[in-house]
From TrEMBL:
The keyword Membrane applies. Residues 570-605 are annotated as: Disordered. It comes from Hyaloscypha hepaticicola. It holds the Pfam family YVC1_C. The chain crosses the membrane at residues 266-283, 289-306, 318-341, 400-422, 458-477, 544-562. This is Calcium channel YVC1-like C-terminal transmembrane domain-containing protein. InterPro entries: TRP_calcium_channel (IPR052971), YVC1_C (IPR056336). PANTHER family: ION TRANSPORT DOMAIN-CONTAINING PROTEIN (PTHR35859:SF5), NONSELECTIVE CATION CHANNEL PROTEIN (PTHR35859).
Length: 685
């Protein structure tokens, strides 16, 4: 039995009290009991949004908007959503998970875009012990040799990051019901794997697709993608990563190298050059010695592999698997390693056959490089929607083929034994494969050669099961998988897009070298860690970055100048705070108190008040002067008689509205009507 089921039943708990400086664990502890007590009946997602079942959700949102300024609120809500989703696939906990997600985005809808960005990009603090050998708490690029061994130990544990997050999510249920004697450090340790994650990152890991598809959230994601929101304002040894709005007058132009749009664009150009070198090597196909183009191909391959490894470590391995294009990258690396081994072995033994096999293996690279080049097309809604559909169809296809393989092996063994040496196992395998893929006539031609008596009925059964039953079932399964994903096309596309952006922006490295230039610090600077302090090496990396990436920065500057990206297309240009900072210090102040609906308020009153305002509001035309400074009421320039007639008509309309309002009040006394949903982006297109 769950820990919360032991709580005494009675009056519903009060609305959670969250202080502005409460820790992430305390915020989770404050929110968890409310969802457990108030969401006590299973409801669908649409019912929570549009019916009276979501009344407690609206009350919580009103309360949080007025009273909560804790920057970890969105992180806590999405973590609880993940918690309830992992407990139970359906039922009451799924309802609670949907409630957490709805509260998160409705809270953001009630804020300004700048404040919404603050909450979405708040990074949960993490404790870092500062040693005497390291004057800086960051151990990524500032550490000397001794702390670097600690970094290697942390790196080896990155592959367990998602497992640790899942374990922490499951253990959340014990937080709200732990005894007072439990030490605070133990409670913090329960959710310590979430340290360093932002709200958007937690949403991506927890598959909060409805949250990520909201317009207010997508504005933040688009701001990161286009570079309107940046995490580094200058390239200096003392620079810290923090979300902030881009100001082209103050920010360092070299920080544009960290914009995801440019990272992905130059990544595609790098893969295109990789494919060009691949074709040069395959066209030359020199078996006697290694050519210049082949040397360049090896350099490109090493840079590609190192960039992929860096991306895996920077994203903490939790986003890496979410991007389906990383699967192509891994296959490209495996094929490249196989080619290098066979090529070296062939040259060492002077064996032309091994060398030819090496080039044949290298030819397989084009099968994955060409789609990888066009991966940028997945940013378009049409292609971005097809990718999740294709992924779901492939998963169902693999599951279904296990059943096909079992039946195929049974028929293969039976037909081979009945043939009594007339057909080998290899020949019989290919015959049955051809029959399975539509070659029924071939099966009927050889059925008497297999066995005069049992061959014909056996082949008829095989043809009917494969070409009729299994193929038809497979088509139906694929159609259902496609329909299941396409029904949430917008959510699926925006989830893929959000992961694509976050994967390129979660790195904590100050200096980001584009491949193949990334090999320069790997070969020339990294070995110097043994002899020089980390602070000096970091300055060296910055200097080398500026010297080697001047052409790339120049191209970015010309692009932004041509499109006036930094001045006119800035999504947050009119919402920038004084110092363009999105850190914890920029947490919005509490908004003025507004009427809220507590648990005892009726939804009828809310609807009646809203209808009263709509029905009794004067219908006037509002315009602006040339300066747009103030609004004025526009009166028609007619004679007095026309104005009297118009006023008489308005009085009649007002009387009709009053009668309609009276009928509405009478109708409310006999039934229950939920207040309309005030979310503009609750529904997915």
């Amino acid at each position: 039995m769950d820990a919360w089921q032991s709580l005494p039943h009675g009056a519903a708990p009060k609305l959670p009290t969250i202080g502005p400086k409460d820790s992430f664990v305390n915020v989770v502890r404050a929110l968890l009991p409310y969802f457990v007590h108030e969401i006590s009946m299973s409801s669908t997602f649409d019912q929570l949004r549009t019916s009276a079942a979501g009344h407690k959700i609206r009350a919580l949102v009103d309360h949080l908007v007025v009273n909560c300024t804790n920057p970890a609120l969105i992180n806590a809500l999405l973590t609880l959503k993940w918690h309830f989703s992992t407990i139970e696939a359906g039922g009451i906990n799924e309802t609670r998970a949907n409630a957490c997600e709805i509260v998160a985005w409705r809270f953001l809808h009630r804020l300004s875009e700048r404040d919404a960005a603050i909450f979405c990009l708040y990074e949960l603090p993490q404790r870092v012990e500062v040693s005497r050998d390291d004057c800086h708490p960051d151990i990524t690029e500032q550490s000397t040799l001794l702390p670097q061994f600690r970094e290697l130990q942390v790196t080896r544990q990155l592959h367990n990051r998602r497992f640790e997050l899942l374990r922490s999510v499951v253990n959340i249920r014990a937080l709200s019901f732990s005894e007072s004697g439990v030490e605070e450090d133990d409670q913090e340790h329960t959710l310590s794997p979430f340290a360093g994650l932002t709200g958007l990152e937690i949403a991506a890991v927890a598959d909060c697709k409805k949250f990520l598809s909201q317009r207010i959230v997508q504005k933040v994601v688009n701001g990161i993608w286009t570079g309107d929101i940046i995490f580094w304002d200058t390239l200096a040894a003392t620079t810290k990563k923090r979300p902030q709005f881009y100001d082209h007058k103050k920010a360092d132009i070299f920080t544009r190298l960290r914009v995801p749009r440019y990272i992905k664009t130059f990544e595609v150009l790098f893969v295109a050059a990789f494919l060009f070198l691949l074709h040069l090597v395959l066209i030359e196909r020199n078996s006697s010695h290694i050519t210049v183009s082949e040397v360049l191909l090896y350099i490109w391959f090493v840079a590609f592999s190192y960039n992929e490894l860096s991306e895996f470590l920077d994203t903490k391995s939790i986003f890496y698997a979410a991007d389906i294009w990383n699967g192509c990258d891994i296959i490209i690396i495996v094929i490249g390693i196989a080619f290098a081994i066979l090529r070296a072995l062939g040259i060492y033994e002077n064996n032309p056959q091994i060398i030819d096999t090496a080039f044949d293996v290298l030819s397989l690279e084009a099968l994955f490089m060409v789609p990888r080049i066009f991966s940028i097309m997945s940013l378009r809604p049409y292609f971005g929607t097809l990718l999740p559909c294709l992924q779901a169809m492939v998963k169902d296809f693999v599951k279904f083929m296990t059943v096909v393989a079992v039946l195929y092996m049974g028929f293969l063994a039976t037909c081979t034994l009945l043939a009594r040496g007339a057909f080998s196992v290899t020949d019989m395998s290919w015959f049955l494969v051809r029959v399975f893929f539509g070659g029924s006539s071939l099966g009927f031609e050889i059925m008497r050669d297999i066995n005069p008596k049992l061959g014909p009925p056996l082949m008829v059964i095989f043809v009917c099961m494969t070409n009729v039953l299994l193929v038809t079932s497979l088509i139906s399964i694929q159609r259902d998988a496609f329909a299941r994903v396409i029904s949430h096309a917008r959510e699926e596309y925006l989830f893929v897009y959000s992961v694509y952006v976050l994967e390129a922006s979660t790195s904590k490295r100050l200096t980001h070298f584009y491949p193949p230039l990334s090999l320069i610090p790997l070969v020339l600077i990294r070995p110097l860690r043994i002899f020089f302090p980390a602070e000096k090496l970091r300055k060296t990396r910055i200097l080398v970055l500026k010297l080697t990436h001047v052409p790339i920065v120049g191209a970015i500057w010309l692009f932004e100048l041509a499109h006036e990206q930094a001045r006119r297309s800035n999504t947050f240009s009119s919402l920038q705070p004084p110092h363009h900072t999105l850190g914890p210090s920029a947490v919005p102040k509490p908004q003025p108190a507004r009427p809220t609906h507590g648990p005892s308020s009726s939804s009828q009153n809310h609807l009646i008040i809203q209808k009263t305002e709509e029905l009794l509001s004067p219908q006037v035309d509002v315009g602006k002067d040339k300066k747009g400074a103030e609004s004025t009421v526009v009166l028609s320039d007619t004679n007095l008689e026309g104005q009297v007639q118009e006023l008489s008509g308005q009085v009649k309309d007002l009387s009709a509205k009053i009668a309609e309002l009276t009928a509405l009040i009478i109708a409310q006394q006999g039934g229950t009507v939920a207040p309309p949903d005030d979310d503009e982006d609750d529904e997915a297109a």
